[in-house]
């Protein structure tokens, strides 16, 4: 692994189903982030983690949960998917949680909720 | 509220120069980023400005005026591969990144 990976690449999901998007980084970065990107809107922060064992809510956290059991992994869970959660999801990481550090992005997961 | 404004779309000709503007109103300022995002791909870092002035990096330059809440990204000698969206993001007083919606740049031969 080099950098940051996400799985799956894309997914079609029935409304009401539970889904976990996976994110793994091998750069030993302390901070990790989950964003959603919708047409015409900027990247919107869902949840973040400043370091392993801690998480925080971003701009649009409702309907999503995260965990950070170790440095490398930061999964995002949709407990009961709704069509408005159709989006492209990007995971990112940075050396520290200071916003002045460059964020490195994974390739994204395209999620469609029907 | 916090706001980042960028043009939605711009068109330029191969070999030419284009300037993509970004204006911002945020609670505090701790730097401004430019990222490039090709269609269907992840954003990748281009530049970071925290002091006023112009920073040049090859064909790309980024300018910042903190007093005016304004930045621009200047792309010279445009190539077809520069067709992408360019995202402006500001780090606010809480060290959170506020993202603009991005400018889609179309390069024509």
Tell me what you see in this structure.
The complex is a heterodimer of chains A (114) and B (109). Chain A is an all-beta fold and 114 residues long. Chain A is built from no helices and 11 strands. In chain A, strands 2, 4, 5, 6, 9, 10 and 11 form a 7-stranded mixed β-sheet that branches. In chain A, a hairpin with a 6-residue loop joins strand 5 (44-49) and strand 6 (56-57). By secondary structure, chain B is mainly beta. Chain B has strands at 3-5, 9-13, 18-25, 32-37, 44-49, 53-57, 60-65, 70-75, 84-91, 97-99, 103-108. In chain B, strand 7 (60-65) and strand 8 (70-75) form a beta hairpin. Chain B is globular, with a radius of gyration of 13 Å. Chain A binds chain B through residues 40-45, 90, 97-100, 102-108, and chain B through 4, 8, 30-31, 33, 41-45, 48, 50, 87, 89, 91-92, 94-102.
Helix/strand order of chain A, N-terminal first: EEEEEEEEEEE
The count of DSSP E runs of length 2 or more, i.e. the number of strands of chain B, is: 11
Name the largest protein-protein interface in this structure: A-B, 18 and 25 residues
Shape of chain B: globular
Stretches of chain B where pLDDT is under 50 for at least 5 consecutive residues are none
Q: What is the number of helical segments of chain A per DSSP (H or I, 4+ residues)?
A: 0
Q: Return the string of H and E elements of chain B.
A: EEEEEEEEEEE
Number of strands of chain A: 11
Separation, N- and C-terminal Cα atoms of chain B: 40 Å
Q: How far is the N terminus from the C terminus of chain A?
A: 32 Å
Most strands sheet of chain B? 6 strands, mixed
Strand content of chain B: over 45%
Protein structure class of chain B = mainly beta
What would the average pLDDT of chain B be, to the nearest integer? Answer: 95
What oligomeric arrangement do these chains adopt? heterodimer
**Helix percent band of chain B:** under 10%
Any low-confidence stretches of chain A, pLDDT <50, length ≥5? none
